[in-house]
Specification:
With 165 residues, the protein is an alpha+beta fold. Strands 1, 2, 4, 5, 6, 8, 9, 10, 11 and 12 form a 10-stranded mixed β-sheet that branches. The protein has a two-stranded antiparallel sheet with strand order 3-7. Strand 4 and strand 5 form a beta hairpin.
Length: 165
């Protein structure tokens, strides 16, 4: 009798373990997956882009790993703050471009936005940007961070989120 109870208990524990593993997997790959738009669920990198007349351009690319749900972003990020080796860089960025266009972001669907910096003024080095992403109706809570060597200056503008890397 004792052997039968032990065996039954082990089978029940194994069944719960398999069920729990299935639930954890479903939470990261199914419809209930966390949003890729949440700051903790994506990666952002800043790289130099092709310049234009009178401006430097830097591209901020956002990518999301598998296991997160796609989401919709719109317009330019807000609340941009720049820093260089942890020290704040005193530049406030404006926005340009269509602020209402919706873009889908998620695993396999990277997005980017442009940082346009005038090259005729005092250019300041930076290595990190903090920003708040926007949806068509609201903002995403929390700050996202992008790292990379770039520069900013008074008159810096940030373009809307666009599809692609």
């Amino acid at each position: 009798m004792r052997t039968h109870r032990t065996f039954t208990a082990l089978v029940a524990i194994a069944g719960l373990t398999v069920a729990a593993a299935g639930t954890a997997h479903a939470a990261t790959t199914g419809d209930d997956a966390p949003s890729a738009c949440r700051p903790a669920n994506h990666r952002a990198e800043i790289t130099r882009d092709q310049g234009s007349a009178g401006h430097f351009h830097f591209r901020v690319t956002l990518t999301a790993p598998r296991g997160y749900a796609s989401c919709v972003l719109a317009g330019s990020p807000t609340d941009l703050r720049f820093s260089d080796h942890g020290a704040a860089v005193p530049v406030t960025a404006g926005r340009y471009g269509d602020q209402g266009a919706a873009v889908t972001f998620g695993p396999g669907r990277p997005v980017h936005f442009d940082v346009q910096v005038p090259d005729g003024g005092r250019v300041l080095a930076a290595d990190e940007a903090a920003f708040t992403l926007r949806t068509p109706d609201n903002t995403i809570p929390g700050a996202s961070f992008a790292e990379g060597e770039f520069a900013v200056a008074p008159g810096t503008l940030v373009g809307p989120v666009q599809p692609g890397a």
